[in-house]
């Protein structure tokens, strides 16, 4: 609460509240942070969420499994493909059907492209939050190519809805492989530019290094997953530990950092982009032939009675889908364990004692997508 | 620690615990169902006992069954990636109450607020139990099966 | 030998013409009005130009095209924006201190206009060539921070207040560095009068004549000048991603436009002072006593030289803005008090020594 602090000169100062958001350039959506400030120094941050709560979990209880897939696009719209995949994998595993290798590889490539596009957007916005406005458009230059690939194959750029239970909606476009290869080729020359423009900048380093340190214990306790947690040394990559789709047949490193400061979180994502590029490179030339949809998955899907949990690694961390099924065509209860929800609430723990400008930097490296938090 | 020895261990702590296995035939999850009064004790042991160290709670939610509420805690050890589902059966549907776990797993604080918001389960000793997604003035708990909103909900 | 184009006869003839009709008092009054109108027109035009250039420069850095719809190459875009701002509603928030709230934009604009009066645009084209011209410009332009402080306070908005206080700390600190770096040239040229400083560069600009110390001073001036105009990477007072719009969050319409105007006028002033003091102002590019070369350079009119140099400095400052991330407030002050200020002080002593020994060209 507000209290008057008596300084030694007997001048009274007062702590005060500032509402950051729900309309604020750096909260990336409708997040409201209530800051308790002593001058520029943050004493406490209270996140207020729910401005874009659409009760997706309640809606899912009335929808069929095929419909639920479409809702997931609207959660973490930057990890749209992985969100779709989570529900599809859950349904397939529950029905105990095996999708063809072709589908697995396509899904993996698509997921990694989505991860790249999400990290690109994050990088651009990260620079913008720190006042380097140019990064945003550099990032969008590269992201545009991925969106074009999506548009050609999926018919949409953001809410792709490409996965369906039992496969993918359409086969890949004939140009797909060539375009992905072109993109990878160009992006490998563009990624070092990211370092030149931002990572190696003196001001940027000063702003981020040693700031907002999150220890491994706290990361685990707060349930911080994704690159945010991995920058603290918390090995949590679902792709590694519980491989799904084609992740068990590709080689990639799980990026682990040890410092846990803002710069580590930044660097983890940059390195992760290199890993994604490498995963795509390994797969793009060997997409096996096969069915794109498993014929045994019927139009109206009824899951067997029971409880199922499926997690995938989105660009932000572990997205879990927990379904309690009573054998009907819609789930009895469906819960999305969204990575952003857990990641957001570590902010207060991280930011105390730092300045407003640091808060903005930390919020960027947590990489929040508000619809993902609110669901 | 495999499921059998885990089961034995938990049964040792809570003799009346029930066990079941959920998930698919490939990925089985051990579920341990206990009563609310034992929750804190079991949770602390699961978190701290050697060989278990379920230090990562990756999911916390509630399910509204016709006869009872079921709190579902998905636990995982960050070292071995062993997983366990801890369930708490709350028989009292009128006034569901359960002990908070936010001192053991910090992430529980906000997940519990969400459960309170959407299911109305009250978490005892919670430091800041307020609605999180909905308005402070919201009436009812939307994810309960008996929740009705004649204006905004379309029932098929 | 061809001398640089001197505009003094032109201004003198206007003066004489007026004198032949009017008493000396009215002559001065009429001249004031003419100068005022000319300066306002110049400022309005140059700010619109600068905004357009800034947007085009930003677009260039950001792989975009920039404004290209209104008028040829989007040239009228800023005019359209200006008209839009003119017609917007004036919003004064309910709990604002109304008098101060309305006063702040004027203070800022007046401070900028005061300073621009002493800028020598070309040989003989200077509104007032006072003997403490440099001192006057720095003094006048530093009044602007009062406007920022008042504006930030009066809006009754916490973002504004934080922005204003940041700006206060920042401008007061960086003023020292800016002045100290300018002092190096005052030491070398022995005068605060801008025309004398320019005259002293007729055999070469100070940045070339004064060896490394003057070059360092120029860099310091650029950094401090950028900070003084509240431009990126020192735009903490605005800090869009932190404080939404900083000290002018609550302003709208023409009052906002005035802040905007002042920002670009200040940019121009900083660039003009830098160009005048370090790069010879309107003085053409001369090298020592190479008479032939110097004569060729004299064929280019001084006013073109001046705007070319100002454009160069503005280009540098814009380049900073669109490349660097923003500093944090403590880093900003550390940079000034722990680095720039000591370097400047040492530099000033070195320059004084050079000047004393005559070790410059």
Domains counted in the coordinates of chain A: how many? 1
Determine Rg of chain A (CA atoms, Å).
21 Å
Radius of gyration of chain B: 16 Å
Share of residues in strands of chain A: 5-15%
Write down how many β-strands of chain B occur, each being a DSSP E stretch of 2 or more residues.
7
In percent, how much strand structure appears in the residues of chain B? Answer: 25-35%
Q: What is the tally of helical segments of chain A?
A: 15
Which stretches of chain B are low in confidence, meaning pLDDT under 50 for 5 or more residues running? Answer: none
Largest sheet of chain A: 3 strands, antiparallel
CATH architecture of the domain at 3-94 in chain B: 2-Layer Sandwich
Oligomer state equals heterotrimer
Name of the CATH first level of chain A = Mainly Alpha
Structure description:
The complex is a heterotrimer of chains A (375), B (156) and C (361). With 375 residues, chain A is an alpha+beta fold. Chain A has helices spanning 56-60, 65-72, 80-95, 101-129, 134-154, 176-199, 202-208, 216-221, 226-230, 238-241, 262-284, 339-344, 347-351, 356-366, 370-374, and strands at residues 4-6, 12-14, 16-20, 32-38, 41-48, 163-164, 167-168, 306-313, 318-325, 333-337. Chain A has 15 helices and ten strands. In chain A, the strands form four sheets. Chain A has a three-stranded antiparallel β-sheet. A three-stranded antiparallel β-sheet of chain A has the order 8-9-10. Chain A is globular. Chain B is α/β, with parallel strands linked by helices and 156 residues long. Chain B has helices at residues 3-13, 39-48, 108-119; strands at residues 18-23, 28-34, 56-64, 69-76, 83-90, 97-99, 122-124. Chain B is globular. The model of chain B has no long low-confidence stretch (mean pLDDT 82). By secondary structure, chain C is mainly α. Chain C has helices at 8-21, 24-61, 77-87, 98-116, 133-141, 144-154, 158-189, 194-199, 206-209, 211-228, 240-243, 253-278, 291-298, 302-321, 329-357. Chain C starts with 7 loop residues before the first helix and ends with a helix. The model of chain C has no long low-confidence stretch (mean pLDDT 83). Chains in contact: A-B, A-C.
């Amino acid at each position: 609460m507000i209290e008057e602090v008596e300084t030694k000169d007997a001048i009274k100062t007062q702590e005060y509240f500032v509402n950051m958001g729900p309309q604020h350039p750096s909260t990336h959506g409708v997040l409201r942070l209530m800051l308790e400030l002593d001058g520029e120094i943050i004493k406490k941050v209270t996140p207020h969420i729910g401005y874009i709560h659409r009760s997706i979990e309640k809606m899912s209880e009335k929808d069929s499994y095929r419909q639920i897939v479409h809702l997931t696009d609207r959660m973490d719209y930057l990890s749209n493909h992985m969100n779709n995949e989570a529900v599809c994998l859950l349904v397939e595993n529950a029905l105990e059907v095996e999708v063809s290798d072709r589908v697995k590889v396509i899904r993996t490539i698509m997921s990694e492209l989505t991860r790249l596009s999400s990290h690109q957007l994050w990088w651009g916005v990260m620079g913008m939050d720190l006042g380097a406005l140019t990064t945003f458009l550099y990032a969008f230059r590269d992201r545009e190519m991925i969106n074009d690939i999506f548009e050609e194959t999926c018919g949409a750029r953001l809410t792709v809805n490409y996965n369906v239970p039992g496969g993918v909606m359409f086969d890949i476009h004939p140009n797909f492989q060539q375009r992905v290869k072109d993109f990878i080729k160009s992006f490998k020359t563009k990624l070092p530019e990211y370092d030149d423009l931002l990572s190696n900048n003196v001001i940027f380093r000063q702003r981020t290094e040693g700031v907002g340190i999150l220890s491994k214990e706290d990361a685990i306790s707060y349930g911080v997953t994704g690159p945010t947690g991995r920058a603290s040394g918390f090995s949590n990559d679902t792709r590694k530990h519980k491989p799904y789709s084609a992740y068990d047949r590709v080689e990639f490193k799980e990026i682990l950092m040890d410092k846990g400061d803002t710069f580590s979180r930044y660097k983890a994502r940059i390195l992760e982009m290199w890993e994604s590029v490498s995963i795509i490179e390994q797969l793009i030339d060997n997409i096996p032939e096969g069915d794109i949809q498993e014929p045994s998955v019927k139009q109206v899907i009824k899951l067997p009675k029971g409880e199922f949990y499926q997690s995938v690694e989105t660009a932000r961390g572990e997205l879990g889908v927990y379904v309690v099924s009573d054998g009907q065509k819609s789930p009895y209860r469906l819960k999305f364990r969204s990575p952003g929800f857990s990641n957001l609430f570590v902010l207060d723990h991280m930011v105390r004692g730092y300045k407003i400008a640091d808060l903005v930097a930390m919020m960027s490296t947590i990489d929040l997508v508000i619809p993902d938090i609110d669901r | 620690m495999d499921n059998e020895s885990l089961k034995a261990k938990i049964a040792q702590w809570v003799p009346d615990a029930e066990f079941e296995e959920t998930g698919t035939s490939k990925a089985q999850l051990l579920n341990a169902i206990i009563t609310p009064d034992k929750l804190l004790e079991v949770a602390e042991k699961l978190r701290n006992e050697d060989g278990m160290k379920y230090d990562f709670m990756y999911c916390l939610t509630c399910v509204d069954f016709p006869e009872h509420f079921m709190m579902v805690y998905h636990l995982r050890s960050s070292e071995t990636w062993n997983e366990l589902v801890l369930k708490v059966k709350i028989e009292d549907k009128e006034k569901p109450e359960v002990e908070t776990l936010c001192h053991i797993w910090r992430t529980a604080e906000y997940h519990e607020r969400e459960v309170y918001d959407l299911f109305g389960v009250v978490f005892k000793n919670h430091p800041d139990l307020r609605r999180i997604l909905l308005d402070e003035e919201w009436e009812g708990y939307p994810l309960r099966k008996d929740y009705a909103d004649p204006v905004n909900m379309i029932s098929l | 030998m061809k001398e640089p184009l001197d505009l003094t006869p032109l201004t003198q003839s206007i003066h004489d013409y007026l004198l032949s009709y009017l008493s000396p008092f009215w002559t001065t009054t009429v001249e004031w009005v003419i100068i005022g109108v000319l300066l306002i027109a110049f400022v309005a035009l140059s700010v619109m130009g600068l905004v357009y250039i800034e947007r085009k420069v930003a677009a260039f850095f950001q792989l975009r095209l920039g404004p290209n719809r209104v008028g040829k190459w989007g040239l009228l875009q800023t005019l359209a924006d200006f008209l839009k701002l003119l017609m917007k509603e004036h919003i004064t928030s309910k709990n604002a201190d109304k008098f101060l709230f309305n006063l702040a934009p004027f203070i800022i604009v007046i401070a900028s206009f005061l300073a621009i009066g002493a800028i020598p645009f070309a040989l003989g084209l200077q509104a007032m060539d006072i003997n403490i011209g440099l001192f006057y410009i720095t003094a006048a332009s530093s009044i602007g921070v009062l406007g920022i402080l008042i504006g930030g306070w009066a809006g009754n908005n916490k973002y504004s207040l934080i922005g204003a206080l940041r700006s206060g700390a920042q401008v007061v600190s960086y003023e020292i560095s800016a002045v100290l770096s300018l002092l190096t040239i005052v030491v070398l040229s022995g005068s605060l009068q801008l025309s004398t400083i320019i005259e002293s560069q007729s055999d070469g600009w100070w940045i070339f004549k004064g060896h490394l110390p003057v070059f360092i001073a120029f860099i310091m001036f650029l950094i401090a000048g950028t900070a003084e105009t509240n431009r990126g990477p020192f735009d903490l007072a605005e800090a869009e991603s932190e404080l939404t719009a900083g000290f002018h969050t609550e302003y709208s319409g023409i009052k906002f436009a005035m802040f905007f105007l002042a920002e670009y006028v200040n940019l121009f002033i900083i660039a003009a002072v830098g160009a005048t003091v370090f790069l010879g102002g309107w003085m053409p590019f001369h090298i020592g006593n190479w008479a032939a070369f110097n004569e060729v350079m004299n064929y280019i009119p001084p006013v073109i030289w001046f705007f070319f140099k100002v454009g160069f400095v503005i280009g540098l400052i814009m380049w900073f803005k669109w490349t660097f991330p923003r500093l944090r407030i403590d880093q900003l002050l550390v940079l000034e008090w722990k680095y720039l200020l000591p370097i400047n002080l040492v530099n000033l002593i070195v320059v004084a020594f050079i000047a004393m020994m005559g070790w410059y060209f």
